[in-house]
Amino acid sequence: TVFAMRQLANLQAFYLNKPKEGIELLERLLKIPGLSASVIGQAKLDLGDYYILTAEPWEASLIYGQVEKQFSNEALGQEAKFRNAKLSYYQGDFVWAKAQLDVLKSSTSQLIANDALNLSLVIAENTEITSDSNALKTFAKAELLSFKKQFLSALSTLDSINQLFPGNSLGDDILMSKAKIYQQQNKLVEAAEQLQAIINQYSFDLWADDAVFMLAQLNEEKLNNPEKAKELYQKLIADYSGSLYLIEARQRFRNLRGDHIN
Predict the structure, then answer these.
(1) What is the pLDDT of residues 11-38, one digit of tens each?
(2) What is the pTM of this model?
(3) How far is 201 from 45, CA to CA, in rounded Å?
(4) Coil, helix or strand for 229?
(5) Alpha helices in the chain (DSSP H)
(6) Which residues, 6+ apart, have CB-to-CB distance to 192 below 8 Å?
């Protein structure tokens, strides 16, 4: 029942444009007796997300803070801290967001640590001068629109950055954000084009190894091009030895090559 209620609340909030109904449903869920602490924590994280959709960031921050405090040394608490930091990033409070992200870079969850590191670097690289900071505020606004599933507005905002702030340092970040949006829209060819552009133009920047892995995975799983996927996994193994994706890339490359892995 709890699973079904969370799924329905997610549909209402993100896809049916009824976030308040999603909030009401989760508030009912949280009153169910006998729920485990982790289920309550996960539902509260959802609730925090929905408060962002209803333009109530203080409520969202409060909810995230509750989960962070209750699960302070656990992955759930670290996830709550990351979402709170990202909320500050959306609002343009880059100094506070980066301070929280830098704490999370040593998270026990490798994925949270990696996400925190990436966002911290995006902030660091794009706040050195005023024009870059202003460009980053527009980029963060686009990311918030993407979070809200307002993809057309997000893409339009991303396209405006180079016009408003020529010479900005967000080139690879814009391409990656577009790639993720196109993937969510199931526009796989467009997503592949953005990822290939990162590989071609920003091969040693922040998103390079992510782009190689994501494009390889796209070719393997969706575009029915195993040879291209194999080539890209091999590139990641050869060129990005420190990548978070290295182990999985090796496994996928061996599978595509036909190795028998026990």
Answers:
(1) 999 999 999 999 999 999 999 999 999 9
(2) 0.94
(3) 37
(4) helix
(5) 2-10, 19-29, 37-53, 57-70, 75-90, 94-104, 110-125, 130-147, 151-164, 171-184, 188-201, 208-221, 226-239, 246-257
(6) 215, 218, 219, 223
